[in-house]
């Protein structure tokens, strides 16, 4: 048994990669007769909108991706996020970071530093009070955890055993908003989520969430990453690629049944509906390679 969740950001129409992850989240949750919960990742008020949310939920509903209960809204959860940040802070597991994106990029690409892509090089980890004052120079600080390059291991239901290095990642952005990984683990715990299905592009970052759950003493969550949808150049699919949203496919004459069938088949689930997929579902048989999305004219 595994309660699942799907957590869209209401920042635009869902594309077929997002829709396929939603379909698979539903199948994963229902294969054991369990529930799929909804979380609205509307942490960023500048990019989230009610219109986008309505369209996303309408698309999901039309494809049969139904949810149990009321959604959890991240925009209403800042108190819980701050409590978690405070808990880490009180144990000396945080520090302020004043780096700009550019500084991080340049430090990380220095030839003598060996870190995975996107990892924080630790520039602000050991600053004195005076150095912090100087680095701040009026800029607001982000808050990072002191993970000290911990290695974590976890077993992904689709991609198998993973061993990843956890960098000092951000838990509160410098605009004061809780960062994705922090919000996500706090909310999964609140909702009683037991299994998270999400895109394989996030696989490298999952170690950060595993680490956070461990230090915050939050319940274990199983992970299942599902393959990425890419465009014909092999780049992660985006809305600008065209013919990728439900509305665009409808304009080309696609029915909802065809969208569901095509997306399931694209990942090796050879069923023609969600209910059929649940009966025959075998996570081990899922395709793990990225899928190239192209609609024949
Ligand atoms: Zn920094």
Question: Could you explain how this protein is built, in words?
Answer:
It is globular and about 65 Å long. The model has no long low-confidence stretch (mean pLDDT 93). α1 (16-30) links the parallel β1 and β2. The chain has helices at 16-30, 50-62, 78-90, 101-108, 129-136, 180-191, 206-215, 246-251, 256-266, 274-280; strands at 4-6, 36-40, 72-73, 94-97, 142-145, 150-156, 160-166, 170-172, 195-199, 222-226, 229-230, 291-292. It has 297 residues and is an alpha/beta fold. It is 35% helix and 16% strand. The longest helix is centred in the first third of the chain and has 15 residues, at 16-30. It has ten helices and twelve strands. The strands form four sheets. The chain has a five-stranded parallel sheet with strand order 3-2-1-9-10, with helices on both faces. The chain has a three-stranded antiparallel sheet with strand order 4-5-8. The protein has a two-stranded antiparallel ribbon with strand order 6-7. The structure holds zinc ion. Residues 97-99, 123-124 line the site of zinc ion.
Structure in a nutshell:
By secondary structure, this protein is of the alpha/beta class. The chain has helices at residues 16-30, 50-62, 78-90, 101-108, 129-136, 180-191, 206-215, 246-251, 256-266, 274-280; strands at residues 4-6, 36-40, 72-73, 94-97, 142-145, 150-156, 160-166, 170-172, 195-199, 222-226, 229-230, 291-292.
């Amino acid at each position: 048994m595994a309660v699942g969740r799907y957590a869209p950001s209401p920042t635009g129409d869902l594309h077929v990669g997002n829709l396929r992850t939603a379909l698979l989240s539903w199948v994963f949750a229902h294969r054991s007769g369990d529930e799929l919960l909804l979380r609205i990742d509307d942490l960023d008020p500048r990019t989230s909108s009610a219109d986008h949310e309505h369209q996303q939920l309408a698309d999901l509903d039309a494809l049969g991706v139904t949810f149990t209960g009321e959604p959890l809204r991240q925009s209403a959860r800042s108190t819980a996020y701050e409590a978690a940040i405070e808990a880490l802070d009180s144990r000396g597991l945080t520090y302020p970071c004043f780096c700009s994106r550019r500084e991080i990029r340049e430090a990380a690409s220095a030839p003598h530093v060996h870190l995975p892509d996107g990892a924080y090089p630790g520039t602000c980890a050991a600053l004195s009070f005076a150095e912090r004052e100087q680095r701040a120079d009026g800029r607001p600080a982000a808050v990072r955890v002191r993970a000290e390059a911990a290695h974590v291991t976890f077993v992904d239901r689709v991609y198998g055993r993973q061993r990843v290095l956890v960098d000092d990642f951000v838990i509160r952005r410098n605009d004061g908003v809780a960062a994705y990984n922090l919000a996500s683990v706090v909310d999964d715990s609140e909702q009683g989520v037991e299994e998270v299905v999400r895109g394989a592009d996030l696989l490298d970052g999952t170690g950060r969430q595993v680490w956070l759950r461990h230090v915050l003493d939050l319940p274990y969550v199983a992970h299942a990453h599902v393959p990425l949808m890419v465009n014909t150049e092999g780049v992660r699919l985006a809305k600008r690629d065209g013919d990728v949203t439900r509305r665009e496919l409808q304009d080309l004459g696609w029915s909802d049944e065809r969208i569901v069938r095509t997306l399931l088949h694209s990942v090796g689930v050879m069923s023609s509906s969600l209910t059929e997929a649940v009966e025959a579902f075998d996570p081990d048989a899922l395709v793990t390679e990225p899928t190239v999305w192209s609609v024949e004219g």
